[in-house]
Design a protein that fits this description.
Number of domains: 3
Number of helices: 11
Order of helices and strands: EEEEEEEEEHHHHHHHHHHH
Structural class: alpha+beta
Low-confidence stretches: none
Distance between the termini: 83 Å
Radius of gyration: 24 Å
Largest sheet: 5 strands, mixed
Strand order of the largest sheet: 5-6-2-1-9
Helix content: 40-55%
Mean pLDDT: 94
Shape: elongated
Length: 353
């Protein structure tokens, strides 16, 4: 074999593939691998259907297989030339894109290091899971969380809206799941994780009202939890900080103090169950910092001091990691704060009349 598949990923609903080296055949076959090694094939003619260029003396043949939706669900997309499968390089991501069994799901998606590395390809994979997977609902909750964060990384509006709708479905179903004290399967913990992604999506989509509604809903739910998992504070305390800060900037003093108290009390209940586990204990640092900011906010309110730094709050509450996603979230976050400031001015004028 004189060639290899150097790159492969999902882009805008199609599969973008790059073959490096000499292609010694007219027909290139693409096999969409399904369950039990079944495959649906698609053939393209080389070089007619490819964009062929030379890079540093090496031949590169690129192609986009548009509209691969009709082949779903599939686990991998293989490239064959002259009856042989073309070897794949480390930047070829069109594999492990679906799971037909619960064992496969846990092996491919529970741990970050085993997941597809390309954001848009992983988003496509999670959408397949949410639409075709026949396994457990807690697995679909995990898939929805991953889908939401990857949609935020890509900033594709269609993808974010679809992820949002699927997240709301799982958010409602999570209340019916058993309590297992396992972060991958516990219904209460998954509900909190789903809400964390949802407010990011609503904010990024410019839906301020819906963003506040999901925060208020999960806070009301968590206020009643008497024995939360330690890891649940990682997300809940950051959500409570954000909601308290919006109340703070809006001049809604009683609501701000109330949410700050929910935050502190939840953290104390959660911390009381802390485990001798290094990673999980380390995760409590973010929750601790969020609660500390909540307490500072409360104390400044009670002493009539108002200088809480918005950038510090943003750094504590944001979970989007891609540069473009973070910039979008930051922009929308500042827009929400301007709206809150406007509301505060209105309330101040009304109170003065």
């Amino acid at each position: 074999m004189t060639c290899s598949v150097s790159r492969g990923c999902v882009r805008a609903g199609g599969a973008w593939i790059q073959i490096e080296g000499e292609v010694n055949a007219r027909l290139v076959t693409f096999q969409f691998r399904g369950e039990s090694d079944s495959a649906v094939t698609l053939e393209r003619v080389w070089p007619d259907d490819f964009d062929v260029v030379s890079e540093g003396g090496t031949q590169m043949s690129s192609i986009v297989l548009a509209n691969i939706e009709g082949f779903r669900p599939f686990c991998a997309l293989e490239v064959w030339v002259g009856g042989e499968r073309v070897p794949e390089g480390p930047h070829y991501h069109l594999k492990n894109m679906f799971a037909y069994t619960e064992t496969d799901f846990e092996a491919r998606y529970f741990r970050l290091k085993n997941r597809v590395k390309d954001a848009e390809t992983l988003a496509f994979s999670m959408r397949q899971i949410l639409e075709f997977y026949q396994g457990r609902e807690d697995h679909k909750c995990v898939a929805a969380v991953i889908y939401g964060y990857k949609a935020l990384d890509t900033l594709r509006v269609d993808c974010m809206n679809d992820a949002k709708d699927k997240l709301y479905r799982q958010y409602k179903l999570a209340s019916q799941l058993p309590l297992t004290d396992n972060p991958r399967t516990d219904g209460d913990h998954l509900r909190i994780s789903l809400a964390m992604v949802l407010w990011h999506l609503e904010l990024c989509l410019g839906r301020r009202k819906e963003c506040f509604e999901i925060l208020d809903d999960v806070l009301e739910f968590c206020e009643k939890l008497s024995n939360p998992m330690p890891g649940s504070a990682y997300n809940l305390c950051r959500m409570a900080l954000f909601r308290a800060y919006t109340h703070f900037r809006s001049g809604e003093i009683e609501d701000c103090i109330r949410v700050n108290e929910i935050n502190f009390n939840f953290y104390v209940r959660s911390y009381g169950r802390a485990e001798m586990h290094a990673v999980r204990f380390t995760e409590m640092i973010d929750a601790h910092h969020a609660v500390a900011l909540s307490l500072q906010m409360r104390e400044k309110l009670l002493s009539s001091k108002r200088n809480i730094d918005s950038d510090t709050v943003f750094s504590s509450v944001n979970r989007v990691t891609s540069d473009q996603g973070m910039e979008k979230i930051r922009t929308q976050y500042k827009a929400v704060l301007r709206t809150c400031d406007k509301l505060k001015r209105t309330l101040t004028l009304v109170a003065a009349q």
